[in-house]
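Subject: Protein record for review, amino acid sequence with backbone structure tokens
Why sent: The fold of this protein is of interest and is recorded here as tokens.
Enclosed: The protein record, placed directly beneath this head.
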Amino acid sequence: MDPTGGPLEHIGLIGHQDVAVTERLDHYELFSWDGLLSLLWHHDGNRPNANAVLCCGGALGGVLGPAGGLYHDLGTRFALDGTAITIRVGYRVPNDLERCVFDVLAAAQLAAQHGAERFVVVGHSFGGAVAIQAAVALAERCAGVVTLATQSAGCEVGEQLPEAGTPVLLLHGDRDTILPYHARQLVHMLTGGELHILPGADHRLDAAADELRTRLGAWIPRQLARHG
């Protein structure tokens, strides 16, 4: 791991360790003066991959994702079929937007050191803003952005995504009482892209668990293939 320059240097990396949890899942711990950045890294066990998916949690942190562990299931699936590596980001300081964005960019830099060339960023709730800001920073290396029940605060820079031609997929439940309709409407106006309303789903999106796995299991590989 080379911490010189870029987001890894910005977060003040002072040490790291990693272990293999399974043949296709590694756990990284990156130590900084601001806290511990944890990365759960799904891979195919054999070779570097030019495609990477970066998964961002909400304001309370967490690495499983909404809809009953969506991020874990996508990571397992993409590792098995060789679509991409998937990195689930455990923030140093949850709910600190700037720090969380740099956490995701540090994960991207580490992935690039292992051969990643293009990225899809996925974020739930607060993590939607993290994903959008990280996508803007990744610029031409970003193959797509997915927001899940996103907040609107912090998404203002998303207006740069249509100009860059970055595909955006916005998914939001129609029974979300935490971040209701006006949030998804504003982010859609800023970013363009596809907006899909999930009937019966609240902020955690449990009622749409199967649909999310099916939809993202197709959309993410399609964007990575188009970008490649």
About this structure: Residues 6-217 form a domain with the Rossmann fold fold (CATH 3.40.50.1820). The two ends are 25 Å apart (CA to CA).
